[in-house]
Amino acid sequence: MKILESFLDWWKQNHSNYSAALLDIDGTLLLGNVPIPNSDKFISFLKNTNFPFLLLTNDSIRSTSEKRALLKKTGMNITPDEIISCGDAIKYVAEHFQLKGKKFLMLGTFGTPNYAEQHGIVITRDIREVDECYGVIVGELNYDWESYIVTAINFFIKNRQALLIVPNPDSFWRSGIENNIHIGAGGIGRFICHILREYGIEKEPVYLGKPHEIIYLHTIEALKRRKLLSDEKDHKKIFVLGDSIKSDIMGAVKMGFTSGLLLTGVTTEESLQSHTIKADFIYRKI
User: Fold this and answer.
1) At a CB cut-off of 8 Å and minimum separation 6, what does 282 contact?
2) Does the pLDDT at position 229 exceed 80?
3) pLDDT at 226
4) How far is the C-alpha of 147 from the C-alpha of 156, rounded, in Å?
5) Which superfamily, per CATH, for 89-207?
6) What are the distances in angstroms from CA 277 to CA 50, 153, 223, 252, 259?
7) CA–CA distance, 172 with 255 (Å, rounded to integer)
8) Quick check: 23 and 286 in contact, CB under 8 A?
9) Has residue 251 got a pLDDT over 90?
10) Tell me: the pLDDT tens digits for 61-72?
11) Long-range contacts: 140-145, Cβ < 8 Å, 24+?
C-alpha cells in the first residue's frame, strides 16, 4: 500500500467525505508530554471547520480532565468532554455485572478521581483485603508488581469466576523523545492469565479499551448525545486515526470505520508487513 506523506494535507482535501473523526492521543498527537509536529494545527483545523471529533485514549492512568490539561500545555485546546478514555467504559461493566457496592483489588492507578469509584465500585489497594473482593482491576504505574500480581493470581485460583477487569488492553506504550516503552495493563493482565492457564485455569479479562467494542459503543453514544453524528448507521463515514495496528486500526476494522494509520508511534514502516490487519490509509506524519 502506498504511504502518504502528510495526513493534514490529505485531510484538508478529503474531510468532507466523513461525518466524524475519532483520534488516538498517545503516539498520534503526543509522545509522552511532547506534541507530535503539526498535531496542534490539525486540532485547530478541526475546530475552525466545526468538524465533529472525539479523542479516544487507552490511557486509564489520567482522568479526562488531567489528559485535557496535558494537551492544553502543548497548545491543543481540548475540552474534557471531547476526550473518551477506556476508563469511561467501566460504566457499562458496572451496570452489566451490577458492581455497585462491590469491592475490587486495584493494581496501580485508574484515574484521579478513580473511574471505578465514580460508578459505585469500592476500591481497595490493601492486599490483605483480597478475600473480601469481587474481582481485580489492573491499572498502571505506582504499585509493587510482584506482591500484587502474585496476590491476584492466588485470588483467581481460589475464585475462578471472579472478574479480571483490564481497562487498557495495550501490552505497552511509547513515551518521550527517546521513545522508550512502558508496560501496559494489557500486558500485565495477559501475564496473569498465562500463569493461570499454566496452572489449568482459563481466565478471560474484561477489556474496556481499543480495539474492543465497549469503548466504541460508549463513543457512538457520546457522539449522538452531542448531536455530532449525522448518520450513525454509515460507519464508513467515521474516520479513525491512530498509530497502533493492534489497537486503533483493529478496532476500526471491527466496527466498520474508515481507518488511517500514522507512523509516528508504535507502528513503524518496517513492521507493516508483519501485520495481517491493514489500514485504509497510511501516513508518515501529521
Assistant:
1) 1, 2, 3, 4, 260, 261, 263, 272
2) no
3) 82
4) 14
5) HAD superfamily/HAD-like (3.40.50.1000)
6) 31, 32, 26, 10, 11
7) 23
8) no
9) yes
10) 999 999 999 999
11) 140/60, 140/61, 140/108, 140/109, 140/168, 140/182, 140/184, 140/185, 141/61, 141/108, 141/109, 141/182, 142/108, 142/109, 143/107, 143/108, 145/188
* Residue 181 grid cell: 516503552
CATH of region 4-58+211-285: 3.40.50.1000
> Are the C-beta atoms of 148 and 185 separated by less than 8 Å?
no
Could you say which DSSP state residue 264 is in?
Answer: T
pLDDT at 176: 61
d(Cα 41, Cα 43) in Å, to the nearest integer?
A: 6
User: Pairing between strand 180-183 and 172-175?
Assistant: antiparallel
* Cβ within 8 Å of residue 67, ≥6 positions away: 25, 55, 57, 59, 80, 83, 85
Determine the pLDDT at residue 188: 98
With the C-alpha atoms ordered 274, 280, 284, 286, is the resulting torsion angle positive or negative? negative
Amino acid residing at 96: H
| Amino acid (1-letter code) at residue 9 | D
CATH 3.40.50.1000 segments of the chain? 4-58+211-285, 89-207
* Cell of residue 233, nine digits: 448507521
- Asked if the bond preceding 211 is cis, omega within 30° of 0, the reply is yes
Helix, strand, coil distribution of the chain in percent, nearest 5: 40, 20, 35
User: pLDDT tens digits for 120-164?
Assistant: 999 999 999 999 999 999 999 999 999 999 999 999 999 999 999
